[in-house]
Each structure stands twice: as structure tokens, then as C-alpha cells.
Amino acid sequence: MAMIRNDDVIDTLNELIENCKDGEYGFNELADHTQSNELRALFRNRAMGCAEAAAELQRCAAEYGGRAENSGSVAGAVHRGWVSVRSALSSHNDQAMLEECERGEDAALARYRRALDRDLPAEVRTLIARQLEGAQRNHDQIKALRDSYLTTTA
Q1: CA–CA separation, 56 vs 53, rounded Å?
Q2: Is 106 within the bounds of a domain?
Q3: CB of 44 within 8 A of CB of 85?
Q4: Other C-beta atoms within 10 Å of 137: how many?
Q5: Among the listed ranges 66-70, 84-88, 132-136, 142-146, which one has the minimum average pLDDT value?
Q6: Which domain holds residue 147?
Q7: Selection from 57, 78, 47 nearest residue 15 by Cα
Q8: Residue 99 lies in a domain
Q9: Residue 64 Cα distances to 30, 53, 86, 120, 141, angstroms
Q10: N or C: the chain end with fewer CB closer than 10 Å?
Q11: Vertex 107: Cα angle to 8 and 28 (nearest 5)
């Protein structure tokens, strides 16, 4: 069995840190533009959760000798669906915001799943799997909320 290189572990963690930072940015943008107090609170809470997840990943990366990423990437945001938040924001439509939020969460889940496909130390795998479970719960809550907005606005 091949030795797991610290650089590979750090690269994987930094990709997830970037993912979390982009999510934090996206949720804060949504919170700034929604008219709904309920959604504002939810989006702020999600942004805080993303920040906490990033900090946890940064600590883990440091344990492997890495210099952790501190901010999300503008280019990376395009790939994770948060850039389309801009168009949802322009309409100030909570339904559209929730749809974009779900799209961003779909991309985040895919990134976590890809990370778990890699050869990683057990403790790193456990951390990523736990964060994936949280991201899945977030996704499911956003989807249910989106669906409830669909029925109330239809």
C-alpha cells in the first residue's frame, strides 16, 4: 500500500476549506438580500457553520504541516454554483435564492464525496465524513424549505 503524502492530504483539505469559504460568502450574500427574517437567520447560521467547518479543516491541515487556505476562490465559486446567486439576488426572490442555495449545496456535497474517494488518513477521513453528514443535513433542510416556498407561492 502506498504511503499517503502529506501534500495530498493538505491539498484535499485546502479544496474543502475553499469550498467552505465560498459557502460562507454565498450564504452571507443571500442573508444580505432576502426580505425574510426566517431565511436571513437561516442563511447567517449556515454561513457561520461554513466558517466553523473551514476553521476545523484549517486546524487539521496545519497538523499535517500545511499552510491552510484562508479564503475562497472567485474561480472556485463559479464551479460550486455560488456565482449564480447573483442573478437570484437581483430579483430579491426568496424562491430563487433557495434554488441557488440548493445548487451550491449540491456542488459542496459532490466535493466532499470526491474527497472521500481519495486515500486519506483515518482521522482526516472521519472529519470529512462528519462534515459531509452536516452538509447533507443542510442540503435537505434547504431543499425542504425550497419545496415549502414552492407550495406557498404557487
Answers
A1: 5
A2: yes
A3: no
A4: 11
A5: 84-88
A6: 6-153
A7: 57
A8: yes
A9: 34, 17, 36, 12, 34
A10: N
A11: 105
How many angstroms from the chain centroid is the CA of residue 17?
9
Tell me the C-alpha distance between 112 and 126, whole Å.
12
Task: Supply the CATH number for residue 48's domain.
Answer: 1.20.1260.10
In a domain, 16, yes or no: yes
Q: Left if phi > 0, otherwise alpha if psi is -120 to 50, otherwise beta: which for 40?
A: alpha
Provide DSSP, 117-147.
TS---HHHHHHHHHHHHHHHHHHHHHHHHHH
In a domain, residue 1? The reply is no
State pLDDT tens for residues 31-81.
888 888 999 999 999 999 999 999 999 999 999 988 755 555 544 544 445
Query: How is 8-38 classified by DSSP, letter by letter?
Result: HHHHHHHHHHHHHHHHHHHHHHHHHH-S-HH
